[in-house]
Amino acid sequence: MQHYKMNLTIQVWRQKNALEKGQFESYQVKDISSEMSFLEMFDVLNEQLLQEGKDPVAFDHDCREGICGMCSMYINGKPHGPWQANTTCQLHMRAFKDGDTIVVEPWRAQAFPVIKDLVVDRSAFDRIIQAGGYVSVGTSGNTIDANVIPIEKQKADMAFAAAMCIGCGACVAACKNSSAMLFLSAKVSHLSLLPQGQPERKIRVLNMLNKMDEEGFGACTNTNACEATCPKEISVTNIARLNLEYLNASLSKQD
């Protein structure tokens, strides 16, 4: 793979907080290596801004290994940028070429208010999890090892695939209704498919879906934009499972 350097124009959304209006600001970065990660390019930009006595761009990051889901950037009109099944931190500058203009925005959703620049408050996801995304199995004493509980391989595989969700919020950013259905369905699915998740199975889906609505997320658009941009390729079949779980739980509640 050929290594090369490039000069780029970076148009970044700058906003002091959720109450003030934001705007795009344009910056020039030079001699950017094609082997840099996208976040490393932002590190270079921020060092440049600090040397100029300017406020650096605030952005979320943590593991930089595609695991934590913190690096939420809307790059050239797509969550996490142009590569498929990829997080922002795993995006490399070889995805761009010399002279490109790159537009970077935060997640756009009422439920994800801007804290500063590219950093948004995704604590709504935490509150959805707190509403029911847990199991009542004890974690001490005579706890049964999960490996001794027989589980059908097909269900185990589906549960594992759903549990791959890292809660980054790309599904919300991609959806024109800012729906969190893919996120919610992944969390509900991976627990409802396993024996450990059965005690709270019905109340879980009711509480978590009600909390999602309460947080201001929109309804599912059925356009599959969420699956198309998910860095972990969570399937929309989980949304179908969520709807079935909700229907069963609602009918049981009426009984």
How many strands, what sense, and barrel or not for the largest sheet? 5 strands, mixed
Helix content: 25-40%
Side by side, the strands of the main sheet go 2-1-5-3-4
CATH topology of the largest domain: Fumarate Reductase Iron-sulfur Protein, Chain B, domain 2
Distance between the termini: 63 Å
Indicate the mean pLDDT. Answer: 94
Number of domains: 2
Task: Label the structural class.
Answer: alpha+beta
- CATH homologous superfamily annotation of the largest domain: Alpha-helical ferredoxin
What's the helix-strand series? EEHEEEEEHHHHHHH
CATH class (first level) name of the largest domain: Mainly Alpha
In short:
The chain is an alpha+beta fold and 255 residues long. Helix content is 34%, strand content 14%.
Give the SSE map.
Blueprint: E1 5-14, E2 23-33, H1 38-51, E3 74-75, E4 78-79, E5 101-105, E6 114-116, E7 119-120, H2 123-130, H3 153-163, H4 170-174, H5 181-192, H6 201-214, H7 225-229, H8 237-254
Parallel strand pairs: 1-5
Antiparallel strand pairs: 1-2, 3-4, 3-5, 6-7
Helix pairs in contact: 2-6, 3-5, 5-6, 5-8, 6-8
3D architecture notes:
This protein is α+β, with helices and mostly antiparallel strands. The protein has two domains: 5-115, Roll (Ubiquitin-like (UB roll)), CATH 3.10.20.30; 123-254, Alpha-helical ferredoxin (Fumarate Reductase Iron-sulfur Protein, Chain B, domain 2). The chain contains eight helices and seven strands; from the N terminus they run ββαβββββααααααα. The strands form two sheets. A five-stranded mixed β-sheet has the order 2-1-5-3-4. The chain has a two-stranded antiparallel sheet with strand order 6-7. A hairpin with an 8-residue loop joins strand 1 (5-14) and strand 2. The radius of gyration is 21 Å and the shape is elongated. The mean pLDDT is 94.
